[in-house]
Amino acid sequence: MNKRGLNLVEILTVVIIVGILSSLAYVNYSASRERVFDKEALANLKVLQMAQKDYKLDYGVYYPSSGVVFNMTDINNVLKLALPTGTQRNWSYRVYDNGSACASRVGASPNKYYLICPDEEVAVRRDACSPATYCP
Fold first, then answer.
1. 88 CB contacts (<8 Å, ≥6 apart)?
2. Residue 34 placed within a domain
3. Is residue 10 situated within a structural domain?
4. Residue pLDDT, tens place only, 6-52
5. Is the predicted pLDDT of residue 100 greater than 70, yes or no?
6. 13, 17, 51, 92: which could form a disulfide with 79 (CB 3.0–4.6 Å)?
7. Would you say residue 104 lies in a domain?
8. 93, 106 in Cβ contact below 8 A?
9. pLDDT mean over 79-103
10. Cis ω on the peptide bond leading into residue 64 (within 30° of 0)?
11. Over residues 56-70, mean pLDDT
C-alpha cells in the first residue's frame, strides 16, 4: 500500500514537540533580555557617575545643588549626556545632590532599582533608591 501524507497522530506529535521547544526558547530569551536591561542600567549609571564627578570638578558641587532631579532632559542637558528619553526607554534615572544616581525599571518589573554612590566603583542592587540610607 502506497501511503501519501501524514495522519493526525503524526501531525499532533510534531505540533506538541514544536510547542515544547518554543516555550523553552522563550524562557531563555526572557532571562537574557532582563540581563541585557540590567547591564544597560549599570552602564548608564557609570556614565552618570563620571558626569557627576566631572560636574563637581567644574562647579565644586554635585548636580543638583540640592534635592533630586528626575527629568531626563534636564539631566542630559546639564551633565552633557545622551541618556535615553521618551516612551521607548527601559529605565528611569534620577540624580541626587550627594552625587549618587539611581535607575528604576520602567514597565514590566518596576521594582528593580540600582544605586551608585559617587565614591563607589560598582552599582548596588536595592529594592528602593535612597541615597541617605545607602551612601556614606
1. none
2. no
3. no
4. 788 888 999 999 999 888 888 778 778 888 888 888 888 888 888 98
5. yes
6. 51
7. yes
8. no
9. 85
10. yes
11. 88
- The identity of residue 14, as a single letter, is V
Is 111 part of any domain?
Answer: yes
| Long-range contacts of residues 74-83, Cβ cutoff 8 Å, at least 24 apart | 75/48, 79/48, 79/51, 79/52, 79/54, 79/55, 80/51, 81/47, 81/48, 81/51, 83/44, 83/47, 83/48
Please tell me the total count of domains within the chain.
Answer: 1
Is the pLDDT reported for residue 63 higher than 60?
yes
Q: Which residue has the cell 557617575?
A: 49
- What is residue 43's predicted lDDT score, i.e. its pLDDT? 87
Closest CA to 102 of 78, 131, 59, 66: 131
List the grid coordinates of 86.
521618551
